[in-house]
C-alpha cells in the first residue's frame, strides 16, 4: 500500500497509520520494520493474532524534505514463510514556508 500525503510544510511531521490484518490461522509476529529514509520512525505491536488487526504508525520528520519525496517501510515477519510487506509514503516537501519572515522582520 502507498499513502500520498500531498504537500507538507517543512518541519511539519507526517504521520500515517497503515492497518495490517492477519487473515491466517496462526499469530504473526513482526520481527522488524526497515525504514528507507532518515527521520522516519515506526510504532507497532509485534504480535497480530488470527483475524485481528494492528496498525503500524509511520512518523517522518520533514525538516530535511524538499521537492518530490518518497520512502518505504519494509515489514519483516519472524516466520520466513510470510513474505515481506512494503508500505510506501510519497508526496512533496514545501520549503517555501520555511523561509517566510513576518512583515515586521523585513
Main β sheet profile: 5 strands, mixed
Radius of gyration: 17 Å
Our measurement of the CA-to-CA distance between the termini, rounded to an integer number of angstroms, reads: 45 Å
Structural class: mainly beta
Number of strands: 8
What does the average pLDDT come to? 85
- Helix count? 0
From N to C, what is the helix and strand string? EEEEEEEE
Instruction: Tell me the overall shape.
Output: elongated
| Uncertain stretches | 97-102
Record the strand order, biggest sheet. Answer: 1-8-7-3-5
Q: Fraction of residues in helices? A: under 10%
Strand content: over 45%
Q: Topology, please?
A:
Layout: E1 2-9, E2 14-21, E3 28-35, E4 40-44, E5 47-48, E6 53-60, E7 67-77, E8 85-94
Parallel strand pairs: 1-8
Antiparallel strand pairs: 2-6, 3-5, 3-7, 4-6, 7-8
In summary, what is this structure?
The chain is an all-beta fold and 106 residues long.
Provide structural commentary.
Helix content is 0%, strand content 57%. The protein has 106 residues and is mainly beta. It has no helices and eight strands. The chain has strands spanning 2-9, 14-21, 28-35, 40-44, 47-48, 53-60, 67-77, 85-94. A hairpin with a 7-residue loop joins strand 7 (67-77) and strand 8 (85-94). Mean pLDDT is 85; it is low at 97-102. Strands 1-8-7-3-5 form a five-stranded mixed β-sheet, with no helix packed on it. A three-stranded antiparallel β-sheet has the order 2-6-4, with no helix packed on it.
Amino acid at each position: 500500500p502507498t499513502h500520498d500525503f500531498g504537500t507538507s510544510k517543512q518541519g511539519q511531521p507526517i504521520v500515517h497509520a497503515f492497518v495490517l490484518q492477519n487473515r491466517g490461522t496462526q499469530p504473526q509476529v513482526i520481527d522488524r520494520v526497515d525504514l528507507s529514509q532518515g527521520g522516519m520512525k515506526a510504532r507497532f505491536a509485534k504480535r497480530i493474532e488470527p483475524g485481528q488487526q494492528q496498525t503500524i504508525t509511520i512518523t517522518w520528520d520533514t525538516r530535511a524534505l524538499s521537492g518530490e519525496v518518497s520512502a518505504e517501510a519494509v515489514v519483516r515477519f519472524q516466520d520466513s514463510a510470510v513474505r515481506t510487506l512494503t508500505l510506501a509514503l510519497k508526496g512533496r516537501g514545501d520549503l517555501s514556508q520555511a523561509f517566510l519572515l513576518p512583515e515586521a522582520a523585513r
